[in-house]
Amino acid sequence: MFVSLLAVAGGCAKKYKRPPRPMAVAGADEVVPTTQPIREFGKFFAEIDPPADWRYELTSTSDRHEHVTWISPGNNTACGIVYFRMPFPVGHELAFKYGFLAEMRRKEGKADVLEKHWDPQIQGLRFIVESRFFHVEAKFFVRGSEGWAIYAGQRLNNPVNEDEFETAKRVRENADFVESKE
Fold first, then answer.
1. How far apart are CA 117 and CA 50, in angstroms?
2. Predicted structure pTM score
3. pLDDT confidence of residue 181
4. What are the strands, taking DSSP E only, across the chain?
């Protein structure tokens, strides 16, 4: 299973207006908005268009989160979305440190941050994290008491299929979070 993210604690969430739209980089200096189909999941809606031959999985779900994943035909690469709720609004740093990293460490034994920075273009964090099992490159958004992460990941200690990983990164960049259902 690829990375699972649980919120710090349970809580109520209101239906949230569409978050700022992430942008996809089309060329060296050119940026264009995405126009992917809207998909409905258990707790949220998102615009995402993974390849048809990638296997869909509902990775995990609770009253505080939902994690969906698409796994490549080679089975070593994935892209996914995690939607989560927190009991009260917190910023990106707290949600990342006490939510994402803490849960990854709990489930996978370690979570080493290789890179993390604020990206003003998407109004969110970008990071690269490695656990004992996975290399994960993600965009991370917090809006009020809700958050979304979308990632491209690959299994460590297995051959890397660069084409599949580039596909997962394109899916990540073209994804847009629409809203929660609650």
1. 26
2. 0.77
3. 64
4. 23-25, 31-33, 38-40, 44-47, 55-61, 65-71, 77-85, 112-119, 124-130, 134-143, 146-155, 176-180
